[in-house]
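Re: the request from the purification team.
They wanted to know what the chain is likely to look like in 3D before they choose a buffer screen. I agreed to run a prediction and write the result into the notebook, where they can find it.
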Amino acid sequence: MKWGTRVTALAAATALSGIGFAGAADAAGPPVYSKYAVGGTMHIAKPDADLELGPGQFDMYTLVGPYTFYGTITLPPVEVTRSLPGVGTVSGTVTLGPGHADGSVFGGFSGSATWPVRLSDVRVNGRSYDVGPECGTAEPLTTELASDDFVAGKGGRLESTYPIGAFANCGKATSLINAVVPGPGNTLTLDLTAA
């Protein structure tokens, strides 16, 4: 092999090995911050209850190159009232999150968010139940969020179907809450708009 050919081959091999080592999907610089206004709905299947969510905020950090992201979704508490057969009128305040999210925004939106859930101000037929400050799901909710039309810097609609696990630390109301809330088939829709 001629010297010039050998140098060219060596340079090509070095370049290829460099690509293999660094990876074409390595981040090109620090994360890019973007902020989205958040609104939406949550449907809780077992009591057939709908919650209006928002206005909230998604603070999102995107790594340019791999187009992966991480961030926090903040939503205000929401009050819910529902008439349940054999129980009566049940009301309470649900605090969802903050939700810690991560995933990919390459060709849409694909990710997951983990949400602590707290329940307060519980009333049954007007009678207040002291559920304490730690009443909530024993484990955080995990929602797999997806969108085909999400555009980074603009927004889109995220959707998820997920189960709700058992509640704990709710005092005398724990058994009642677990009889009427946990279960599969719940849905979450979040509309993101660049803020």
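For the purification team: The helical segments are 3-22, 174-180.
Please add any questions underneath this entry.
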